[in-house]
Design a protein that fits this description.
With 210 residues, this protein is of the alpha/beta class. It is 53% helix and 10% strand. The protein has a 5-stranded parallel sheet, with helices on both faces. α1 packs across α8, α3 runs parallel beside α4 and α5 runs antiparallel to α7. The chain is globular. The relative contact order is 0.20.
Length: 210
């Protein structure tokens, strides 16, 4: 089974994916961003745009995930924002056409909720602490620029199933996805402090500088 977790940048995709992997034995995370940034780095700086516009990225994602789904004995989890309907069809849709059990979820939240999460992740939290709560989200500026477009596009029917997360914790969102996908997660026995530390570590590991 493939769990594709979609949503705006800063919407909780990566944290939810890691929560499911932590509590679902045999599951793995396959992050298409790795391929995307690799392709992007191959180009001269002036040609580096949205790597999703590269057909090689979309085709490569399908090829790699098809292999993982055929050969790995466990659930494959993909945290990836895709808002273009054509690109969505070429990746998520194509994997379904290849016969895989694809479950797609779009994590949605109100604009202010996502902005708050962007401030709290990675360097955003440090900037807020040093410069004040109204400090610009320097490293998250691109995510902020894309936010309204992402939220608008992902509300469309073709991007269902929609999960609103404004008042949901990451573990609870993971539980909801598991129930909808017919999966059983291990009980979440982790305390609040340990959860916060682990989530901070995940955020720091996924900071991008390019």
């Amino acid at each position: 089974m493939l769990l594709w977790i979609n949503g705006p940048f800063g919407g909780g995709k990566t944290q939810t994916a890691h929560e499911i992997r932590r509590r679902l034995p045999g599951s793995v995370i396959c992050d298409p961003e790795h391929a995307g940034f690799g392709l992007r780095r191959m180009l001269p700086p002036e040609l580096r745009g949205n790597f999703q516009d590269l057909a090689s990225w979309r085709q490569g994602v399908v090829e790699v995930l098809d292999l993982a789904l055929r050969e790995h004995d466990g659930v494959v989890i993909v945290p990836m924002t895709v808002t273009d309907p054509d690109y969505f069809a070429e990746t998520v849709g194509r994997l379904g056409e290849l016969g895989h059990d694809v479950r797609h979820f779009a994590l949605l939240a109100e604009r202010e909720t996502v902005l708050k999460r962007l401030r709290e992740r990675g360097f955003g939290h440090l900037v807020q602490y040093v410069a004040g709560k109204d400090a610009p989200l320097r490293r998250e500026s691109w995510a902020v620029q894309q936010l309204d477009h992402c939220l608008q596009r992902l509300r469309e029917p073709e991007f269902a199933e929609h999960l609103w997360t404004d008042h949901s914790t990451v573990p609870k969102t993971a539980d909801r996805i598991a129930v909808l996908a017919g999966l059983t997660l291990r009980p979440n026995n982790e305390g609040a402090v340990r959860t916060r530390l682990r989530q901070t570590k995940v955020s720091l590991q996924h900071i991008r500088f390019d």
